[in-house]
């Protein structure tokens, strides 16, 4: 269990993180979300013991995570951290990077483990490739595999799929999160991508104004986003009568009190996102077809 209690941290005068408390059970996946600059990366670095806290404490099981003042070598065996900027060894191969910290006294086991991890990050075909020739996304996958190599109890991931192209992202995400669950590895993942959260995270922590704004189940936050900040993380939304209404919760009907005038249509694949004017404000909703500018459409709010 990860225990974070009343953590406050500042690089200089003004605190970046204030009175942060939360827990993560063994094997749980906790997503940290928040706008750019909200302190996600800082929180992960602090959890890793890279900095000394101003206040509070962090425990993994019975062991306190200490900053450099109290712990000469940053980091612990049971915890791995994959930074936004990953530092690999460019002149050796992918498999050498992954196996770097595995014992060379057991070459067969080392090879087996490396092969397993190559599969998790879908890089089997690149085993013998020198890291310097890889793309940013491929390097990110090597960094992930290397962090998993010695089977940590807890892993901290900073926007782990941010450099990976959309073709690979979906399957890689499933593969990595499945591996973590199967191996009961606790995961704290900082992200601004809802796809990293929905379907994978057990809890979602929203950072705002240096504090935890909410800590809840993703499904609960999705269904009842209390603030525009939370809603904006999930989908296009409107504020109508002080209520947050997602674009997909507005239906076009034959007649209603909500009369809108179409301004633009955006092709989105299986639907169009329509921007229209409603009571002299912009409103966004989804519709099955493109609509010409100036058309009148009546809207109805639906649940779900
Ligand atoms: P996020 O990962 O959510 O984008 P960061 O944790 O990187 O946010 O940054 C949070 C705040 O801390 C920002 O205001 C940033 O400018 C500041 N910050 C980050 N790293 C440092 C540093 N090494 N020294 C001073 N300020 C920093
Ligand atoms: Mg960051």
Structure description:
With 304 residues, the chain is an alpha+beta fold. The chain folds into 2 domains: 2-223, P-loop containing nucleotide triphosphate hydrolases (Rossmann fold, 3-Layer(aba) Sandwich); 235-301, OB fold (Dihydrolipoamide Acetyltransferase, E2P) (Beta Barrel), CATH 2.40.50.140. Helices cover 24% and strands 32% of the residues. A 6-stranded mixed β-sheet has the order 6-7-8-3-9-10, sandwiched between helices. The radius of gyration is 23 Å and the shape is globular. The model has no long low-confidence stretch (mean pLDDT 95). The structure holds adenosine-5'-diphosphate (ADP) and magnesium ion. Adenosine-5'-diphosphate binds at residues 11, 16, 34, 36-42.
Please outline the helices and strands.
Layout: E1 2-9, E2 17-24, E3 29-33, H1 40-48, E4 55-60, E5 63-64, E6 79-82, H2 94-99, H3 107-120, H4 136-148, E7 154-158, H5 166-182, E8 186-191, E9 203-208, E10 211-216, H6 218-223, H7 228-234, E11 237-240, E12 243-246, E13 250-253, E14 258-267, E15 272-278, E16 281-287, E17 296-301
Parallel strand pairs: 3-8, 3-9, 6-7, 7-8
Antiparallel strand pairs: 1-2, 1-4, 4-5, 9-10, 11-12, 13-17, 14-15, 14-17, 15-16
Helix pairs in contact: 3-4
């Amino acid at each position: 269990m990860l225990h974070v209690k009343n953590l406050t941290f500042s690089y200089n005068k003004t605190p970046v993180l204030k009175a942060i408390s939360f827990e993560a059970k063994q094997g749980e996946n906790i997503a940290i979300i928040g706008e750019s600059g909200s302190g996600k990366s800082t929180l992960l670095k602090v959890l890793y013991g890279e900095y000394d806290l101003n206040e509070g404490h962090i425990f993994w099981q019975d062991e306190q995570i200490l900053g450099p003042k109290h712990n000469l070598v940053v980091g612990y065996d049971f915890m791995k951290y994959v930074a936004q900027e990953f530092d690999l060894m460019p002149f050796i191969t992918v498999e050498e990077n992954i196996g770097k910290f595995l014992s060379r006294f057991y070459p067969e086991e080392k090879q087996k483990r490396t092969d397993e991890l190559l599969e998790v990050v879908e890089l089997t075909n690149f085993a013998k490739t020198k890291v310097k020739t890889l793309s940013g996304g491929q390097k990110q996958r090597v960094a992930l595999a290397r962090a998993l190599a010695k089977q940590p109890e807890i892993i901290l991931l900073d926007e782990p799929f941010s450099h990976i192209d959309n073709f690979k992202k979906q399957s890689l995400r499933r593969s990595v999160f499945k591996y973590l669950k199967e191996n009961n590895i606790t995961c704290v993942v900082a992200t601004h991508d809802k796809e990293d959260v929905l379907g994978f995270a057990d809890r979602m922590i929203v950072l705002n104004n240096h504090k935890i704004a909410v800590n809840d189940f993703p499904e609960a936050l999705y269904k009842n986003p209390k603030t525009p900040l939370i809603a904006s993380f999930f989908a296009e939304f409107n504020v109508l009568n002080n209520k947050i209404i997602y674009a997909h919760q507005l239906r076009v009907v034959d007649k209603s009190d909500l009369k809108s005038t179409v301004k633009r249509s955006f092709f989105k694949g299986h639907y169009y996102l329509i921007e229209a004017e409603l009571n002299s404000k912009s409103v966004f909703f989804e519709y099955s077809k493109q609509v010409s500018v100036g058309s009148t459409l009546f809207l109805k709010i639906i649940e779900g």
